[in-house]
Amino acid sequence: MPGLPFKKAVVATICLATFAYSAPAGTLVASAPSSTPTAPYASENPNGMLWTEQEDITPEPIRGTLGATILGPQNVPMDLQNADLLAPPSTDSGTVGNAKWPFSLSHNRLQTGGWARQQNVQVMPLATEMAGVNMRLEAGALRELHWHKTAEWAYVLKGSMNIATMNFNGESFYDTVNPGDLWYFPPGVPHVLQATADLAEGAEFLLVFDDGDFSEDSTFSLTDWLSHVPKDVLARNFQTTVDAFDRIPGKELYIFPSTPLPKASSPQGNAALPYTFKASQMPVTPLSGGTVKIVDSTIFNVSTTIAMAEVTVEPGAMR
Ligand SMILES: *[C@@H]1O[C@H](CO)[C@@H](O)[C@H](O)[C@H]1NC(C)=O
């Protein structure tokens, strides 16, 4: 790219010129105005957050001389959690979209055996390239065999999970993952998830999909397929009789209870590249103020569209 260094140089020059124009007296740039800046200096107010959610106060939309009390109804717990929305720092321009979504506001899908709630672009318009699902399975419960056109990355929060998949080469893969471990399924690869009985209450995990338009309600599940194919076709496809399908569910099951399976290995042998990564066993990189673990496709090869930085930040420290 022969043009690039030149462009960089141009950008640097423009920055310098802009800076010189508003520089205060005493600058070494000869052409700078000697006294009045072109704009007032930024406020000396450090503009910190005015309260934390632990405080026992009624928060008000007041910062310095700006704002006024709330006269109408007020959701105090939410206002306590969102100090910089109710009383923003004066440095805010106010045009940036909402950058967080609490799962507490997500509609939850309750099933026998667990639940799932999601965040996607419909509830958080800024997040066009990723969607999230928080899922809970009781011990032995299954998220049935299903497919979707986005990739699926996961982080185990609690308990442990058996996961199984089969890739486009027909190679199967079966593994057990624990808290802090990851899995990743490329787009279109069928997979099934089951909570183990390692914890009596089962497991919970966070799923991330590489498209903000993803919806957990639009995945393609095995029982959904079975219930929408004529039994005559099913029978011929599986080379059996129609009555073999007398007791299939009439609609998608999605999540359902089952018996925890023992840990097992894939009968066909595992795929060459693993679809799980034991991030819980990886050493952290210590930093002043916290730690980090980075897992990208250089060490978790199948995970080509999502990488993780698991960051811990000590109280008061800053990322
Ligand atoms: C995983 O990716 C790294 C970096 O691209 C490469 O050096 C390594 O050989 C890959 N591992 C496998 C098993 O393919």
TrEMBL record:
<dbReference type="InterPro" id="IPR006045">
    <property type="entry name" value="Cupin_1"/>
</dbReference>
<dbReference type="GO" id="GO:0046872">
    <property type="term" value="F:metal ion binding"/>
</dbReference>
<dbReference type="InterPro" id="IPR011051">
    <property type="entry name" value="RmlC_Cupin_sf"/>
</dbReference>
<dbReference type="InterPro" id="IPR051610">
    <property type="entry name" value="GPI/OXD"/>
</dbReference>
<feature type="binding site">
    <location>
        <position position="152"/>
    </location>
    <ligand>
        <name>Mn(2+)</name>
    </ligand>
</feature>
<feature type="binding site">
    <location>
        <position position="191"/>
    </location>
    <ligand>
        <name>Mn(2+)</name>
    </ligand>
</feature>
<dbReference type="InterPro" id="IPR014710">
    <property type="entry name" value="RmlC-like_jellyroll"/>
</dbReference>
<dbReference type="Pfam" id="PF00190">
    <property type="entry name" value="Cupin_1"/>
</dbReference>
<keyword id="KW-0479">Metal-binding</keyword>
<feature type="binding site">
    <location>
        <position position="148"/>
    </location>
    <ligand>
        <name>Mn(2+)</name>
    </ligand>
</feature>
<keyword id="KW-0732">Signal</keyword>
<dbReference type="GO" id="GO:0033609">
    <property type="term" value="P:oxalate metabolic process"/>
</dbReference>
<keyword id="KW-0464">Manganese</keyword>
<feature type="signal peptide">
    <location>
        <begin position="1"/>
        <end position="22"/>
    </location>
</feature>
<feature type="binding site">
    <location>
        <position position="146"/>
    </location>
    <ligand>
        <name>Mn(2+)</name>
    </ligand>
</feature>
<protein>
    <recommendedName>
        <fullName>Cupin type-1 domain-containing protein</fullName>
    </recommendedName>
</protein>
<dbReference type="InterPro" id="IPR017774">
    <property type="entry name" value="Bicupin_oxalate_deCO2ase/Oxase"/>
</dbReference>
<feature type="domain" description="Cupin type-1">
    <location>
        <begin position="103"/>
        <end position="246"/>
    </location>
</feature>
